[in-house]
Amino acid sequence: MQLFSQLLQNKKALVGVVILAVILLVAIFAPFLSEYSPTQRVGRPHQAPSLEHWLGTTRLGHDVFTRLIYGARVSLAVGFGAGLMITVIGTVLGIIAGYKGGVVDEIINFFTNLVLVIPNLPLLLVIAAFVGQASPPVIAVILGLTSWAWGVRVTRSETLSIRQRDYVKSAEMLGEPSWRIMAFEIFPNLISIVGINFIGSVIFAVITEATLEFLGLGNPNTVSWGIMLYNAQNASALSVGAWWDLLSPCFALALLGLGLALINFAIDEVANPRLRTGGMLGRWTRMVRAGEGKL
Q1: 58 is in which domain, residue-wise?
Q2: Please, is 273 exposed, middle or buried when counting C-beta atoms within 10 Å of its C-beta (0-12, 13-18, 19+)?
Q3: Residue 35, phi then psi, degrees to nearest 5
Q4: 271-280 pLDDT, tens per residue?
């Protein structure tokens, strides 16, 4: 609760939450924000933005604004789905490795190092190419099963420190089972680390999904920001002057990344007081100026 109360007082968190909330609301209420279907041909090819079509049309005459708000649903679903999977796997394995130690730690470390050694993006490209035109759920599963290693490493490191604290030792002396110690003594003290891992994983998943789809490894019948980029590239949107077709999903991805990054920075600042020097420096500067004014 203290973490959330501190986040509410953080300007970066507030701005990030507002941006994310707006995108989520737009995605949820997409049918009420546009009278068109994302796959419906409603205008001339590459029609410029106007009052009728706020963000213009695509080469096939689809309304770009409609595809943008409907595409937010898929991109957000993949991002949060894959981010949740990455975070759960990384947190569970990291806590078990850090608390259990011994052979269990060595086995988990072996597989973690194995995943870390393999370059992530080339691995994703190979798997996605092998699967073919991967649907968004398949992309989310691929990302979740191949991107958890960093979370394990960070969570394990923090667990090794927490397991030496007095309240963990007291719980062990009282005969508490290992699962209960990990769930109720160690995990609550990792909330900030887990939050940072989750937000970072969502950003990674959204950008990676868009990358895979832009490269033609997604399902072209899906309406998502990555497929919008893929279609705009195939239509040579910039070459024919239809900048709105390409820049709209780019701006949406950048805005979502900005909102999530601000939340991530805010969690990091709250969890690590040493990162809050900016505010302290500002207060010190104001005090110095006030002192000079009195002189």
Answers
A1: 2-294
A2: exposed
A3: -85, -5
A4: 765 555 445 4
